[in-house]
Structures are given as structure tokens and as C-alpha cells.
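Entry:
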Amino acid sequence: MTAAPAPAPNQLETGDHAPDFTLPTNGDGEISLSAFRGEKQVVLYFYPKDDTPGCTTEAKAFRDLRDQFEAADTVVLGVSKDSCASHDKFHTKYDLNFALVSDESGTVCEDYGVWVEKNMYGKKYMGIQRATFLIAKDGTIAQIWPKVKVDGHAEEVLAAAQKAN
């Protein structure tokens, strides 16, 4: 019997402490994950690129459920490597009602294990794997959705946030 391979150093699991960060957001803001500890649950969703079809669909789904997330004491944060200027345009174009976090250096993407090698039409490249983390009020990871499929995802995350609250 062979042992299961050890997880990569940046592969987080349910129950782990969520890596903290302080990064710029759309609207010339700045946000720290630790600011929500003890106050709110956090949906931290990573997406590849502003204003692309899947990312737009996902953002609009989270936007449309904002009131229900708020009722569950949960804040939604979208994270990509796009610049704040790109986030500003995306946020305005789709009337988004949550912060978009700019991780241009990719440090947070690496900390959460979502900066991965991808393969499209036989060409390998590095990019963000669409993933979502539900972070409990105590700062631990309550649930992880790796390799997210957009359709129905925001609703699934909402149900988990409501149950966890």
C-alpha cells in the first residue's frame, strides 16, 4: 500500500487558518482579511480575468445574491491579478456591489494555491484556477470549492454560508 502524496505547501484544507492579506481594491480602497475576523464570514473567490464571459457570469451571480449573503453575516470578495484600474471598469460596467481585490504580485493567489499550471489547446501556461473559499468568523477555512464551475456556484456558496452562520 502506498501512502497518499503530501499536499503541496500552499494547498489549503478545511480547518486551516486562512492566510491574511492586505491588498488594494477597486475604488482606491484597501482591504485586510483580518478586518472581518470575529465579525463576518468571508467568501473569497478567485477568478482568472475581469470582463471575460465566465468571470462576468460569476461576478453577476454573487452581485445578485448580495442581500442574502449580508443576511447570513457574510461579505463577498473577488480576487484576481488584474489591476485596480481594470477592477474599476469591471465593477462599474456590471454594477458590482462587493470589493474586487487586486493581487497583481500573485502572492495571495500562491498562498491560497490557486496560481497553477493550466493547459489550453496543448499550450501550458500559469494562471488562476477558479476557486472559492468560505472563511468562518474565526478566520479558519470552513469550505473550499476547487476548480469551480460557474453555473449555480454562487447559490451553492450562499447555502453553505447560511448553514455555517
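Strands lie at 22-25, 29-32, 41-46, 74-80, 99-102, 115-120, 123-128, 131-135, 141-145.
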